[in-house]
Amino acid sequence: MRTVTASPTRTTILLWGVLGLLLAGVVAVAVQKVWPILYPPLLQVTEPDPDCDLRAGPCTARFPDGRAVSFAITPPAIPIATPLRLVVEASGFATTAVEVDFVGVDMNMGFNRVTLREVRSGRYEGQGMLPVCARARMIWEARVLLHTPEGILAAPFRFATERH
Fold first, then answer.
1. For the chain, what is the domain count?
2. Radius of gyration, alpha carbons of the chain
3. What is the pLDDT along the chain (164 residues), one digit of tens a residue?
4. Which of 7, 17, 31, 88 is the most buried (most CB within 10 A)?
5. In the chain, what is the straight-line distance between the N-terminal and C-terminal CA atoms, in Å?
6. Does residue 134 fall inside a structural domain?
7. Taxonomically, which superkingdom (predicted)?
8. 51 inside domain
9. DSSP secondary structure string for all residues of 27-64
């Protein structure tokens, strides 16, 4: 008995090629739409203050134009996988929104951004949580993102967590 196997025709190959191109186009458009949300363009970024110790209390970052933003986390131990109270005081800003983005300094820890709510003029509060890391000691950067009509300003605050 003779076995007959069907070989792909030119039409089938062409259809698969077109389908692949369409799929690649859909992925490219999705990435283009999501990219600014994950990585917003920043108008201005302050330098992290090496003397900042968020465990001791709020830290303040100053922009070159004199405006300042302070950031505090409680509880002071900054435990991982535990709700943290986040407080931002922004003086001299016409903010439309304030977010805190937790970023691993030397390890990608995924998307960890919290939108804070305005409790009074210039004061924003919210709750966030740091994910569990495989490392015993992790250096984090809490990027305070100030959305203004001119663009987004960022103030980074660094701290470490210890897993016991």
1. 1
2. 23
3. 666 566 678 888 888 888 888 888 888 888 788 776 666 678 889 999 999 999 999 999 999 998 999 999 999 999 988 999 999 999 889 999 999 999 988 888 878 899 999 999 999 999 999 988 777 889 999 999 999 998 999 999 999 998 76
4. 88
5. 70
6. yes
7. Bacteria
8. yes
9. HHHHHHHHHHHHS--EEEEPPPPTT--TTTS-EEEE-T
Contact 92/66 with Cβ under 8 angstroms? yes
Statement: the pTM of the whole predicted model exceeds 0.85: no
- Amino acid sitting at position 125: E
Is 107 part of any domain? yes
Angstrom CA distances, 160 to 65, 100, 130, stand at: 29, 16, 11
CA 96, CA 93: separation in Å to the nearest integer?
A: 9
Residue 103 tokens, joined: 């970023």
3-class DSSP state of 80: coil
